[in-house]
Amino acid sequence: MKSLVNVLADGTYSMDKEDLLCYGYDASGIDMSPSAVVWPTNTAQICKLMQFAYQNDIKIIPRGAGTGLTGGAVPSADSIIMSFEKMNRIIEVDTRNLNVVVEPGVINADLQRALKDQGYFYPPDPASLNICTIGGNVAENAGGPRALKYGVTRDYVMQLEAVLPDGRVIRTGVQTKKSVVGYDLTRLLVGSEGTLAVITKVRLKVIPVPDNVITLLAAFSSLEHAGKSVARIIGDGIIPRTMELMDRMTLSAVNKYKNVGFPEDIDAMLLIEIDGNAKAIAADVDKAGNICSGFQGKVKIAEEAASRELLWEARRSVSPALYKISPTKINEDVVVPVTKVPELLAGLQSLSESSGVPIACFGHAGDGNIHVNIMTDKSDKQSYEEAEKLVRKTFKLTLELGGSISGEHGIGLTKSKYIDMELDSVNLEIMRGVKRLFDTKNILNPGKIFPPAGVDVR
Amino acid sequence: MKSLVNVLADGTYSMDKEDLLCYGYDASGIDMSPSAVVWPTNTAQICKLMQFAYQNDIKIIPRGAGTGLTGGAVPSADSIIMSFEKMNRIIEVDTRNLNVVVEPGVINADLQRALKDQGYFYPPDPASLNICTIGGNVAENAGGPRALKYGVTRDYVMQLEAVLPDGRVIRTGVQTKKSVVGYDLTRLLVGSEGTLAVITKVRLKVIPVPDNVITLLAAFSSLEHAGKSVARIIGDGIIPRTMELMDRMTLSAVNKYKNVGFPEDIDAMLLIEIDGNAKAIAADVDKAGNICSGFQGKVKIAEEAASRELLWEARRSVSPALYKISPTKINEDVVVPVTKVPELLAGLQSLSESSGVPIACFGHAGDGNIHVNIMTDKSDKQSYEEAEKLVRKTFKLTLELGGSISGEHGIGLTKSKYIDMELDSVNLEIMRGVKRLFDTKNILNPGKIFPPAGVDVR
User: Fold this and answer.
1) Strand pairing partners for A230?
2) pLDDT tens-digit profile of B257-273?
3) B401 at the A interface (CB within 8 A)?
4) pLDDT of B3 strictly over 90
5) Whole-angstrom Cα distance, residue B200 to residue B105?
6) Which of A273, A398, A414, A438 could form an S-S bond across to A196 if both were Cys, CB 3.0 to 4.6 Å?
7) B254: helix, coil or strand?
């Protein structure tokens, strides 16, 4: 690694123990010390570094803010972490053409703030939006509550500049809303979890802020009824911008963590937001409210912006809050067709009951995306093994319901041993071929996505 | 080809001269006789046929309705055309989960009709929607007027079943709105123009029909003013569902062809549709109308459904109408950022004036997608050569304005020699790698997209 000095100017990299420690883990909880951390400041530097890595067979792990929950940014042994903190410029805001150009290290919320004043927004809003970066969002195809109405990161990426493992720059996509010129390499890179190329610049679509938003809170004494309300609302042709579910355990954890005063004597709460023209949405708000009432939900409207923001702060604190109530939580992120949400919730409840392992469910119920949190204790071997068995059972249930084992967190390290439950050998063969095509030497974020060697592929 | 008999049951293929003639061309005007035409009725048959083709190095050309304008469905020498007329079932309409499953031969308008009664629609609406098929739409990533607000085919494809060149079935994507499980092979296949795999089944997202739609007609005595109105409307944060432009030559051609009574003493017309809640859109209609008036446009509102349908019939007849006023038309399909539409139109006008070759412009101005029709006569060598030079100049102008050389028609055969104007050698190298990965033997729609051998890559 000494020759790194020849590749990068002083000060843009570190091999200090403290840095290696700080960049050795992500929100998955897995850690592994890298050999070095580099903070590139521009694309040319990244090209130089990748050439160096390519020639010397050094593994490079691109890293956003490390908020990923599947270990996508965790180092391999003897690897260099490439962190984008110094590439955080918003290069261009072009509202007249409805797009922006940013460096990968721009924090999602910073982009939101820059746009808000001009009356525009960038819809993807992962719960970690105050920390997570656009580069990481693109690599993981991040979602968030608003994905229900507005779609995921993939739907907003227009152009990418990226550096290939051999150090060459590739520019994909167009700055127009349409184009059919060769294969869609842009969307091949979106969600590729840093395994194909290092993203160095992103052009994102933005849209005008809707005039109004109304927030509904519906409290249910039955989780099943909450799930049925969700399915009915979508089935009746109402597309809220968000429809978030929190179960009893989640509500209690958030109250303890944030003291927001959520009711605790209920089994589930739905947080529904409908946006658009005031008159247009009034009818939808009524309909959605009536559907919830029909399933014995108690419905309240949060009129003021301030109280809405409090609700969202509470919602975004769910993940950290759950960490507080149990020594270990296994965080899964499954998604099913929205009509199957009640069955998924019921199935999870019975898995929890039969195993005696608590499961907390919350998430983006409106698009069928439920974050399943299996509460356990890593230090108690037997209980942890029991909990781990539940992961496979959760995925099996999800797939039987026509779902997918990862709605928005990606596969990374933690799910790679399960990927063959969803993808057959033909898919995996083609995907491995794509990986080889881009990364012949397997130096870019190796070991992510694909099942580790020695793991039986069904 | 005799052994085809062993592969397919009698009656599902033909080597009759009449059939070879009928399936030997598409809307690009290029023709070439295939060796046979097959009409598979199910996926298993396609697998058998592809295995046969793979073992015997026979070229297979998948074909929808042949409405493509770049020759994507034109046979190669000694190839078999695979036509999907007999695979035209709508397999499932699941409005509660907002999606449908169809076979590739389903006609776009048939799907629209099936959905309409239930209050849903499938947004992509190419002008050929009464003939063109979903399989072809997916292969070409088709757009249409409504793409302005609702996006293109890519944005609606959730799952694909396809047969690889070696005869194996691949199933990509998920039936949920989200998923991050490996690389996005679904969108890699969308827009791949039948060169990677044969699409055999498609799950498409559908959305509820908006409550209301208002149609505005704005007549301008200056093409530039029409272009500026388009840019201003989008820049002001109004997103109509369509914003179609027709220039003087286009209006006159349509009048001759359909006798719809479009005004002819004007230089351009905009056909704008704004949809949504009645009260919500009224404000946008006013704003859009005022912007057009501000550029001296004469604005009229088409209130009735019947008169609106007439307008759209007229709009959809533009392409055939233009064929009537000139022996040959070279049909291009460029797209620029919407703020650049006025510059593009002005540039095209000056190209036409300096060359003496008439150019008719129409298309989806709201998303910057202009169909550029260079009017010429193939039998007049000199005039045709002059016209062909304009193609390259049109693309050069488009790319200088930050645009793309194909908005929605693909590359096929007719644009393959220009693709390197837009894509650099790194992009082409990776794309060729993708082609080789899927189609090692180059038997699936060979010769499409990529520059022909012997053509200088810049």
Assistant:
1) none
2) 888 888 878 999 999 99
3) no
4) no
5) 9
6) A438
7) helix
